[in-house]
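HUMAN: Mind making up another protein with tokenized structure?

ASSISTANT:
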Amino acid sequence: MKRLIALVATAALVLGAQVAAQQGQIIEKIIVKVNGEIFTQTQLEERQIEALRAENQNVADAQALQTDAGLRDALARVTPIVIVDAVEELLILQRARDLGVTFTDESFNQGLENLKKDNNLTDEQFKTALAQQGMTLDDIRRNFERQYMMQAVQELEIRPRLQVTDEEMRQYYIAHPEEFTEPETVMLREIFVAVPTETRGGEEVVSAGVQEEALKKITAARDRALAGEDFGKVAQELSESTTKDNGGLIGAVNVAELAPGMRERIDGIKTGEISEPIRTTRGYQILKVESRSEAKPRPFAQVREQILRQFQIQRVDAEMGRYIEGLRAQAQIEWKDERFQQMYDKALAARAAGGASGQAR
């Protein structure tokens, strides 16, 4: 049984697990009650560790929060945010339950499979990763459930409030044409001939004779294609690039993403034409422009849903903030430790000031 650990100066924030013996039972310290639901010291420590690990802080366990002086400054910074988030999560989770939202075993198992798939982990690798992070499946489930319930409230209660008119979306479409324009592309084929280097006196050099032979070979390939031979077949026969198996096909290239020098060369080649030999860092290359697709705007009807999602993403945080303020105003929040209440109030005031400042700009 652990004894109560007195907190030292606020700047130090040595927040270890605190328990007391009372009538033969171990009673855990309660930080706050939200509509009768408790948030405990142990839960606080878990959240602190999560927050610090998210910043790549090395936190072995809750005991390190008490003993590692190097964690104290970071702990002082993250704890007020952790407490605010914890209270808000309780409010949202309570609302989710009121709405009848439940997190099922099926949802948990699907979430696990998605997590392993996204990280390319086998079952054994996943178990190893959990152990390395000091986490259990119960920890993962609690995190999944929190996110699932909060997302459900957002979908049920927040998104329906995000009213976006067609006129707003059309004005955005008109003002940001670059976001909805299909780029200019060019379909290219190539034939490439390498110019091998050799080492002399510790330096990479190119033999003039080797370079001349490579230039003759690429020129001969170009002459054959200009004379009417199929470019793809010549590429399969002579090219030394990995594209030779596909007849030298590079594919569609976004012109705007090309290096300036290459873009200038491409701009000078009409559809169906073949470039002069181009000296690259590795050898000689000729290019054929198979086709071109000019830049053109996508119709509003095609991008309407995309614009709607952008507006929703921009507005969901502000709307969620107002929604939580409403839940908080109706909630019974009972603090059991004045120091944590002060952190909470200060963090809320800082958030409000930041929001007002952002709106003023």
In short: The CA atoms of residues 144 and 185 lie 43 Å apart.
